[in-house]
User: Which sequence fits this backbone?
């Protein structure tokens, strides 16, 4: 069953006659096209892919299951002509201006229906090829941590370490990093989204590092917190609280687990262990994008299902003192889970 066939099932649920797919990540997912101007229209019986003359050759190589049509650079007019009946469009990504233009150009009797999130629902459940790509991307992240353990952190600046991570991942064959790495030492680690500074990493502190690689389009995402020497007791205890919460939450990841409950368990364990918690969700889906569905968060809906790939990343942030975060990537399987991150979670102390 092709991805477009799975999409047709969702169209029927929504009583849509066709779906206009304009978000390029969704276009790639459905058609294989990796260029920067393309869109598709899916109906029960038709799969149309449109791109402009610059990408016709590339589309010939990449797009095999869709009928390929050449359109003007501004695709909208040609797309509008292909829509029929109740036509779903991606109201989360189509601008108000584009929506108005589309409305002007469709034939009489076409009703534009907001239908964001349908392809994203499919993307949340990975197939074997996707799992293979994410596994390989996760192994690159593991290797980056092996390298950081070997080269050490103290005496280097956060920014230099971040740059070395980008270089290393690209040298190891990543398409690119899946996001700019975070390297945050000591009190700076208490900011969950810290940017690396031109500041030397001292000895005797925790360093939060969050990094990922993109490989064949698919992302990995992994956080480890290293020590640069012996720690104050309270800091070492904080690390252990997060490590235990992370392990427990990871154990709660399985098909049927309620997303809100897995999130709540991790928050509860960190709060019970250290008296303070973390302000972000426990995790998020990872795939063609580093943040996608499903989410593990207080406001998340639904349950996990086999094929989901999510992060489990509890943290502890003590303003002015230190931060800890530990993040693994995990695939939900039919009978449990496959942890895709291999790097250990016992506290790693690097001397250099
Ligand atoms: Zn991360
Ligand atoms: Zn993450």
Assistant:
């Amino acid at each position: 069953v092709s991805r477009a066939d799975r999409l047709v099932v969702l169209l029927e649920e929504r009583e849509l006659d066709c779906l206009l797919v304009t978000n390029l990540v969704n276009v790639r997912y459905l058609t294989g096209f990796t260029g920067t101007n393309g869109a598709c229209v899916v109906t029960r019986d038709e799969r149309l892919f449109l791109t402009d003359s610059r990408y016709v050759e590339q589309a010939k190589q990449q797009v095999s299951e869709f009928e390929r049509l050449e359109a003007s650079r501004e695709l909208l007019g040609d797309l509008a002509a292909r829509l029929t009946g109740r036509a779903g469009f991606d109201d989360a990504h189509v601008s108000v201006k584009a929506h108005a233009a589309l409305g002007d150009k469709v034939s009489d009797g076409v009703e534009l229906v907001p239908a964001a999130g349908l392809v994203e629902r499919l993307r949340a459940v990975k197939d074997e090829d996707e799992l293979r790509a994410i596994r390989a991307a996760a192994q690159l992240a593991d290797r980056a941590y092996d390298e950081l353990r070997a080269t050490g952190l103290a005496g280097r600046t956060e920014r230099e370490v971040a740059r070395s991570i980008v270089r290393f991942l690209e040298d190891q064959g990543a398409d690119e990093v899946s996001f700019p790495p975070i390297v945050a030492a000591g009190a700076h680690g208490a900011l969950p989204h810290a940017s690396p500074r031109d500041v030397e990493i001292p000895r005797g502190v925790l360093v939060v590092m969050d990094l990922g690689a993109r490989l064949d389009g698919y992302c990995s995402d992994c956080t480890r917190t290293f020590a640069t020497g012996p720690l104050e007791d309270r800091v070492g205890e904080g690390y252990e609280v997060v490590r235990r919460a992370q392990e427990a939450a990871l154990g709660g990841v399985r098909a049927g687990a309620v997303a809100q409950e897995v999130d709540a368990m991790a928050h509860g364990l960190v709060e019970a262990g250290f008296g303070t918690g973390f302000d972000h969700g426990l995790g998020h889906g990872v795939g063609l994008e580093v943040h996608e569905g499903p989410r593990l968060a207080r406001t998340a809906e639904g349950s996990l299902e086999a094929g989901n790939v999510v992060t489990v990343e509890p943290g502890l942030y003590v303003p002015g003192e230190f931060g800890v975060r530990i993040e693994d990537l995990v695939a939900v399987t039919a009978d449990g889970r496959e942890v895709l991150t291999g790097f250990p979670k016992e506290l790693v102390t690097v001397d250099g």
